[in-house]
Predict the 3D structure of the following.
Amino acid sequence: MVIVMKSDAKQDQIQVIKKKLEGLGCIVHVSKGENNCVLGLVGDTSAINEGQIEAEVFVDKVVRIQAPYKRGNRLFHPDDSIIKVDGRTIGGKELAIIAGPCAVESEEQLITIAKDVKLAGANFLRGGAYKPRTSPYAFQGMEEEGLKILLEAKKITGLPIVTEIMSVELVDKISQYADVLQIGARNMQNFDLLKEVGRCNKTILLKRGMSATIEELLMSAEYIMSEGNENVVLCERGIRTFETFTRNTLDLSAIPVLKKLSHLPVIVDPSHAAGKWWLVEPLAKAAIAVGADGLEIEVHNDPTNALCDGQQSLKPEKFKALIDDLRIIAKTQNRIV
Ligand code: PEP
Ligand code: MN
């Protein structure tokens, strides 16, 4: 951290700030030129409240050199994290392909889709039992009945289950059925929920909020990790921009940026980014080409009658063709599907 003093700061005022910072456990190097003075801080600056320092009358500005996230930071963990989930991995050589319907609608629907996506090459099954819907009148999910169906599909296909959790009270219940708890875009900054899943022993799939910066996403991961759960997977799922043709704008650059800043696995959800089924294929291919560790894709056997997100769901045949194409792109990244 570097603190730039105002040009009219006097020696005794500089000393007051220096003492205050030293009191917080930092080593402070003072560099004084003819007109300006900067204080260079060495040591753990995480306890420093930047706002309080910047509020000092003789401080011009505070510049953070190190990122505010520690546990997710690649600086302190140079190797990629490989997360083990029920005999599978996320972040290793094999791409994580999470596929399934937006929502569990019935046993027949889910089991049909689960078998299809498994055959096509998926290694995880997704399906929402508790759905975050914009309208309170829209289908809200099958709740615990949906969780039971997910577990049934797992018994048949062996695919580990990924499902969304929206509230603190449901952590124990959903953990009895699911292998991966998904924190949706709308809850990326639900800090109580982040802390609660940080205390459970499940892998957490953390989706980027629709208006969240990359640093905010990493700070949300930090909330989970700081409670002890290091098994966090980041997911880029498109952000809000001025463009309205697509549901969101897939921020492809976030993938190499996140991989550079963090050791955590990064996957992409092209379905919620695009909002249109025919855009899923090119976006999924692009995501793997820029280094994503996997994909989360909505697949439905009957999109025209889907209770949720039919417009962006791939039919199983299209999903299979996509996975076959992805095998070629994965090779260029030294990955396998
Ligand atoms: C979902 O994956 O079902 C979902 C609601 O996605 P998001 O939170 O990214 O909108
Ligand atoms: Mn959906």
Notes: The first strand starts at residue 2 and ends at 5.
